[in-house]
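Section 5.1 Outputs to date
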Amino acid sequence: FGELLARLRALLRRGGATTSTLLQIGALEIDTRSRRVSVGSKPLTLTTKEYAVLEFLARNSGRVVTREEISEHVWNQDFDPFSNLIEVYMNRLRRHLARVSPNRFIQTVRGAGYVLEPDSAANGGV
């Protein structure tokens, strides 16, 4: 019963099916229906997990997202909190984005989590 409640809470946090199929954060564009990502006119090829992390950050653009929130939405409640897997995926995403744009879309907020913003290069993003 506890697991059922945890799964229901996670589903409720994810939001309903009425969300937009096109997410745009500055030059970053994510088509959630076709699962295509591009910066300007340059497409990005991402793995399933990389895409899931980026989409979750985009849906929460401008807001600091904690490691726990990312792990609940991308992995599951059995995710090892001591794993560095989230940092690995953030580094991969940053490398993919750096290949096609000088902007630093993903910033680390020390002790809090990550934030996806369109103008991070101008703000001295990490």
